[in-house]
Amino acid sequence: xxxxxKDAAGNTSPTSLAVGTIKDTTPPEVIGIDxxxxxxxxxxxxxxxxxFSENVQxxxxxxxxxxxxxxxxxxxxxxxxxxxxxxxxxxVLHIKTIYTVDVPAGAVQDAVGGxxxxxxxxxxxxxxxxxxxxxx
Length: 136
Prior knowledge:
The chain has no helices and 13 strands. The protein is mainly β.
């Protein structure tokens, strides 16, 4: 769209201004995770965070986000704040156990509906020390 300024007398400015919109075509991407992929010695009561390249909201596959030990799904509460997805564990995790976090494609989306294009998974292992400080 090209716009010209016109004053009260009807005189049109010789200078024009091009005005347009830029469409957001870049979907959100994962840019950070905590705990890190492959981390060991992770506390049993850790809070899992996934950070995205832009603010996100619930997407169509949001309910398919999981945390698993082998094939057993762990109960979690999910929340989004800005560009961060927080997975809060309902119960503490077991010691010396490998957990897999899976955020499927479409789990989150940006403000214009651009969904996470590719699923993202990572693993971590809990500490060998119980809450009392002794190995089990």
